[in-house]
Q: What sequence folds into this?
């Protein structure tokens, strides 16, 4: 061996007299230390209550929570991958205290403690708040389409089920007829009692396909039953709750992951998973969950801050019903543009640019009628329910002789206007967002929630759920 080279001593087989702490092999500011210290502070009693009193001793909940939290923070979402890291990755070895559990135990812990893990998420947020990482004054909400643990081709509608079943029945009949013909030919060649040579390979494969197609026919029957029971137009037979979601130019079978993000350090303070195909119906639930979590934070820190919580979302969440709901919540100050107003700010044309849009009609509130661009009067007729809100109907009886007939309306009964009971809230929101302060606050959204979602999908690589709906329900 050469001994005169300028090298540091190296011997990875050398025995250590005093074993060091495994954590000493990690930098002091390593994420594993943060996860370790945070989990030591959260309440683990709900996990303890589920530990069986008989059988082999269970792994400590602190160990399991630590490796799952650290796994999610480092793009390791699979229980099999975590088992692998427990043997090869210093951070995982440190967090597990050098204990090596198998992937089935890791997976079962997650499945059996989904609610507890969600509650631990809130506990972790409280720790972040104590450390001064959250401001809790400005919260942005947005969503990200996440693919379900199911393929879109296993989504069936009633027409597709019937069509596929007929196609499979026909194919089965053809294959069975061919197999029967082969049997007759072999009986004639070898004799009815003689086996002869093995069945040709291609016929064997066809028989396998026949059996598989019979299984598929049965699956389709079950899908039809599930579709009828659910009342939906389409259903995915792998994950019944998954819905077709538009994700840019793609249509996938999946869910919408909703997140509420604090403006200071981009900490996610609330989250939800829904199969709704648009964001409008998700807003109020997310706002309520955010407010509830923040109340818990303030309770823990004895904070009596009464400042209104600024909720900032894009136009996909805007609806008159949402504006009305948020108007009732005195602790919330919402910033939600409507689609037409947001499009106009971007220089795009909308139907409001038409000289005959209802916003070009002047409302006389005292006598309750509209004046159209031609100076004619639209009188109040009645009120009725329309799309879950009360609308007032105004109609003009002088349209047939109007110079704008055909452009303003083609209805021989005359032009009508439906005025929602919440229309004033849309205008109020537009005025708020047109101020310098409103523009500044709404601009926070781009540097708050969008980077958090980008980090989730691009950096952490979380684009698909690993569990089916059975395990997603808490």
A:
């Amino acid at each position: 061996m050469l001994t005169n080279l300028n090298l540091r001593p190296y011997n990875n087989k050398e025995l250590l007299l005093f074993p060091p702490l495994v954590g000493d092999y990690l930098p002091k500011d390593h994420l594993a230390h943060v996860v370790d210290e945070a989990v030591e502070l959260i309440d683990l009693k709900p996990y303890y209550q589920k530990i069986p009193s008989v059988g082999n001793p269970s792994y400590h909940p602190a160990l399991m929570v630590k490796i799952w939290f650290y796994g999610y923070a480092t793009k390791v979402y699979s229980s099999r991958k975590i088992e692998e890291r427990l043997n090869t990755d210093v951070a995982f070895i440190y967090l597990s205290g050098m204990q090596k559990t198998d992937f089935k135990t890791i997976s079962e812990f997650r499945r059996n403690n989904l609610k507890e893990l969600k509650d631990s998420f809130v506990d972790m947020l409280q720790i972040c708040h104590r450390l001064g990482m959250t401001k809790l004054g400005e919260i942005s909400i947005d969503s990200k389409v996440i693919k379900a643990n199911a393929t879109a081709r296993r989504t069936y509608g009633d027409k597709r089920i019937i069509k596929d079943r007929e196609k499979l029945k026909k194919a089965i009949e053809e294959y069975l007829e061919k197999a029967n013909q082969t049997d007759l030919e072999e009986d004639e060649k070898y004799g009815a009692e003689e086996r002869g040579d093995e069945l040709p390979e291609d016929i064997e494969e066809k028989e396998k396909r026949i059996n598989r197609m019979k299984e598929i026919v049965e699956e389709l029957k079950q899908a039809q039953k599930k579709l009828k029971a659910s009342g939906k137009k389409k259903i995915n037979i792998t994950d019944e709750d998954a819905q077709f979601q538009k994700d840019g130019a793609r249509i996938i079978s999946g869910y919408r992951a909703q997140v509420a993000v604090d403006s200071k350090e981009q900490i996610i303070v609330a989250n939800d998973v829904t199969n709704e195909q648009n964001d409008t119906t998700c807003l109020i639930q997310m706002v309520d969950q955010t407010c509830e979590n923040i109340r818990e934070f303030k309770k823990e820190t004895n904070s009596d801050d009464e400042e209104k919580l600024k909720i900032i979302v894009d136009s996909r969440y805007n609806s008159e019903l949402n504006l009305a709901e948020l108007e009732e919540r005195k602790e919330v100050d919402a910033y939600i543009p409507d689609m037409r107003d947001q499009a106009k700010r971007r220089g795009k044309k909308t139907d409001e640019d038409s000289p005959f849009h209802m916003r070009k009609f002047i409302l006389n509130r005292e006598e309750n009628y509209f004046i159209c661009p031609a100076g004619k009067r639209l009188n109040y007729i009645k009120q009725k329910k329309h799309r879950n809100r009360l609308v007032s109907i105004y109609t003009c009886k002088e349209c047939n002789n109007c110079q704008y007939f055909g452009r303003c309306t083609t209805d021989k009964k005359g032009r009508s206007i439906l005025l929602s009971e919440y229309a004033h809230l849309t205008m109020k929101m537009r005025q708020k967002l047109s101020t310098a302060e409103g523009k500044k606050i709404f601009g926070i959204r781009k540097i708050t929630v969008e980077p958090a979602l980008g980090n989730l999908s691009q950096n952490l690589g979380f684009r698909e759920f690993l569990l089916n709906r059975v395990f997603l329900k808490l």
About this structure: The radius of gyration is 32 Å.
